[in-house]
Design a protein that fits this description.
By secondary structure, the chain is of the alpha+beta class. The chain has one domain (2-491): Cytochrome P450 (Cytochrome p450). It has helices at residues 29-40, 59-67, 80-85, 88-91, 100-112, 115-138, 143-160, 170-185, 192-195, 210-238, 246-252, 261-295, 297-310, 326-339, 370-374, 418-435, 475-491, and strands at 2-3, 6-7, 43-48, 51-56, 344-347, 353-355, 358-360, 365-369, 436-439, 455-457, 461-463, 469-472. The strands form five sheets. The chain has a four-stranded mixed β-sheet. It has a two-stranded antiparallel ribbon with strand order 1-2. Helix 6 (115-138) runs antiparallel to helix 7, helix 6 (115-138) packs parallel to helix 16 (418-435) and helix 6 crosses helix 17. The chain is globular. The relative contact order is 0.15. It binds protoporphyrin IX containing FE. Residues 93-94, 106, 109, 155, 273-274, 277-278, 281-282, 285, 341-342, 345, 407-409, 413-417, 420-421 line the site of protoporphyrin IX containing FE. Protoporphyrin IX containing FE (HEM) is lined by residues 93-94, 106, 109, 155, 273-274, 277-278, 281-282, 285, 341-342, 345, 407-409, 413-417, 420-421. Pathway: Secondary metabolite biosynthesis. GO terms for molecular function: heme binding; iron ion binding; monooxygenase activity; oxidoreductase activity, acting on paired donors, with incorporation or reduction of molecular oxygen.
C-alpha cells in the first residue's frame, strides 16, 4: 500500500491476486463509487489483477488533476482489448494516447468545429430536426430509431457529404454495431488480457483464445466504419459527384494533391471520431427527453406554454430564439445534468504523481465520476429529482453543468463538439415540444405503464428501451412540419 514512501489513496480492501475484481459493480457502478466515497473520501483506489484504478468523486479532485495538472493527466489508459486488439486507439481520438498523433487529429476536428464552420452547419441541423419531426408524424412508435437517424444523418452529411435514408440507413446501422462492439471491448473487468497483456501473444487457434478471434473480427468492423465512408468520398471526388463536406474540403485543400499516408490516416480518424462519438451522445440525451416528458407532464406543459407564448404556433423556433426561451434552456441543462451521458471518464498519466499526500502510480486508470458530481446533494438540491427550475437564477440558481462545461469534460480532452451538440439539442427539444405531446404508454386498462428508469452502462449511459405515445398537438402543428421541411429543403 506504500510506494516511494507515499500511501496509495484509501479504498475497499482487496484480495490477493484478483485485487478488487469481486467488488467491481456490474450495475450502476458510478452510484456504488459515490457511496464508497462516504467511507473512503473523494479519491478512491482499487486494484484488479495488478492494474491500478483511482476514482475521483468530487469536482475539486477532477479539476485539480484533469484541468490544473492537464499536462500530466491528458493521456488515456492502456486498454489492451478495446484500444489495441480491436484497434479503437487508431480509429477514434477518444481512445488515443496523448501525443503528436492526438494533436494532429484534434487540430483537424477543431477546424471542423470552428465558429465560422458551426454557423454554416445550422441550416443542416435545422433540416435534420424537421426530418425527425416528419418521421415522428409518420411512425411515432419508433421514436428512438428516428432520433438515431436524425443525429447520424447530420454527422454523415457534414463529415462525408452522405445522404442517409430516412429509415434503416446502413451507415447508421454500422455505427450502432461499432458502438456495441466498443462497449463490450471496453467493459471494465471483462477481459483477462487487459490485466495480462502478454495473453495477446497466445496463438489464436488455441482453445481459450476465442477472445483473439472476436477481437480480430471486431477490429475489421470498426475499421470499416471509418474507412468505407472515407473511400466513398474519394470515389465521388474522382467521379466528379462529391457533395461538400469536411472530408472533401480537407482532400481539396492541397489543390487535390494526394495526402501522405499519415495525413490520410489522421483525416480518416478525425472524421471517424465524429461519426463514432457524435451519434450515441445525442441519442442518449434525446431519449431521456422523451422519458422525462412522459413521466412529468407538468414540466412538459410549462415548456410548451413558453414556446407557444414566445414563438406561437405559426412557425418553428430557430437558433436565434434561444435567448427568449429561458425555461427551455433550464430544461436542457437539467437533461445534461440528470442524464450524465459520459458518466465515468478515464484519463491516465505516464509518470507517478502525488496528490493530497497520496501516490497515483503511472499507468493508473484515473476515472472522473462525472455522475457523482452532477448528483452531489451539496451542489444540487434533491439531485435525483428532475427539476429544470433549479437553474433559474431568480430561484436557487444552482451550478450550471454546461456553463462549467463539466459534463463534457475538463482539461485538454474536453468535448470538441460542445457548441455543436448544444445547437442540435436545442433545435430538437424545441421543435418536438412545439409539435407533439409526449405521453406515457397505456396498458389495456388505459393506465400509465412507463417502466422505471433503468440504464445500460457502457462508456455511454443510455436508458433501456421504453415505449411512449408521441401525438401531434393539432392538425395545424402537423402542417407546420410539412411547411418547414419544404421551405428548408428548397433553400438548402
Ligand atoms: C450530449 C452530447 C455530448 C456530451 C455530453 C459529450 C461528452 C463528452 C465527454 C465527457 C468527453 C470526454 C472528455 C474527457 O475525456 O475529458 C467527450 C469527448 C469527445 N466528444 Fe463529446 N459529447 C457530446 C456530443 C458530442 C458530439 C455530437 C460529437 C461529435 C460531433 C462529440 C465528439 C467528441 C470527441 C471527438 C471527443 C474526444 C476528444 C478527445 O479525446 O480529445 N461529442 N465528449
Amino acid at each position: 500500500r506504500f510506494q516511494r514512501g507515499y500511501p496509495l489513496p484509501p479504498g475497499p480492501k482487496s484480495l490477493p491476486i484478483i485485487g478488487n475484481l469481486h467488488q467491481i459493480p456490474r450495475k450502476d457502478p458510478y452510484k456504488v463509487y459515490r457511496d464508497w466515497s462516504e467511507v473512503y473520501g473523494p479519491v478512491i483506489y482499487m486494484r484488479v489483477f495488478g492494474r491500478n484504478f483511482v476514482i475521483l468523486n468530487s469536482l475539486k479532485a477532477i479539476s485539480d488533476l484533469f484541468e490544473k495538472r492537464s499536462v500530466k493527466y491528458s493521456t488515456r489508459p492502456n486498454s489492451v482489448m478495446g484500444g489495441m486488439l480491436v484497434g479503437r486507439e487508431q480509429t477514434a481520438i477518444i481512445f488515443m494516447k496523448y501525443g503528436p498523433k492526438w494533436k494532429q487529429t484534434r487540430q483537424l476536428i477543431h477546424g471542423w468545429m470552428s465558429q465560422r464552420a458551426l454557423d454554416r452547419y445550422i441550416p443542416m441541423q435545422s433540416l435534420a430536426s424537421y426530418h425527425l419531426l416528419q418521421n415522428l408524424l409518420e411512425d411515432p412508435d419508433h421514436f428512438a430509431d428516428h432520433i438515431r437517424n436524425s443525429a447520424g444523418s447530420i454527422i454523415l452529411k457534414l463529415t462525408y457529404g452522405l445522404d442517409c435514408k430516412r429509415f434503416n440507413d446502413p451507415w447508421i446501422a454500422m455505427s450502432e454495431e461499432v458502438q456495441r462492439i466498443t462497449a463490450i471491448a471496453t467493459e471494465p473487468g471483462r477481459w483477462l488480457v487487459d490485466s495480462f497483456p502478454w495473453l495477446r501473444f497466445v496463438p489464436s487457434f488455441l482453445p481459450g483464445a476465442g477472445f483473439l478471434r472476436w477481437a480480430k473480427e471486431s477490429r475489421k468492423v470498426a475499421y470499416q466504419l471509418v474507412r468505407s465512408p472515407f473511400d466513398k468520398v474519394k470515389q465521388d471526388l474522382r467521379d466528379g459527384v462529391a457533395s461538400s463536406s469536411f472530408v472533401l474540403e480537407q482532400l481539396l485543400q492541397d489543390s487535390g494533391s494526394l495526402k501522405s499516408p499519415e495525413e490520410e490516416e489522421a483525416l480518416i480518424c478525425a472524421a471517424g471520431s465524429l461519426y463514432a462519438a457524435g451519434i450515441d451522445t445525442i441519442v442518449s440525451t434525446m431519449r431521456m427527453l422523451f422519458y422525462i416528458m412522459a413521466r412529468y407532464p407538468e414540466i412538459q406543459r410549462i415548456a410548451q406554454e413558453e414556446i407557444d407564448t414566445v414563438i406561437g404556433s405559426h412557425r418553428l423556433a430557430t437558433i436565434q430564439d434561444r435567448e427568449s426561451l429561458p425555461y427551455i434552456g433550464y430544461l436542457i441543462k437539467e437533461l445534461f445534468r440528470f442524464n450524465a451521458v459520459a458518466h465515468l471518464v478515464p484519463h491516465s498519466l505516464d509518470e507517478d504523481d502525488i496528490y493530497e499526500g497520496y501516490i497515483i502510480p503511472r499507468g493508473t486508470w484515473v476515472i472522473a465520476n462525472i455522475w457523482a458530481v452532477l448528483h452531489d446533494a451539496s451542489t444540487y438540491k434533491d439531485p435525483e429529482k428532475f427539476n429544470p427550475e433549479r437553474f433559474n437564477p431568480s430561484g436557487n440558481g444552482e451550478m450550471d453543468p454546461t456553463y462549467v462545461a463539466f459534463c463534457v469534460g475538463l482539461g485538454r480532452r474536453f468535448c470538441p463538439a460542445y457548441h455543436f451538440s448544444q445547437t442540435t439539442i436545442f433545435l430538437n427539444v424545441t421543435h418536438i415540444l412545439s409539435v407533439f405531446n409526449i405521453l406515457p404508454p397505456a396498458n389495456s386498462n388505459g393506465e400509465d405503464c412507463l417502466p422505471a428508469m433503468e440504464f445500460d452502462v457502457g462508456h455511454i449511459r443510455a436508458l433501456r428501451p421504453f415505449n411512449c405515445r408521441v401525438i401531434p398537438r393539432s392538425r395545424d402543428h402537423e402542417e407546420l412540419v410539412n411547411h418547414a421541411t419544404t421551405m428548408s429543403e428548397t433553400s438548402y
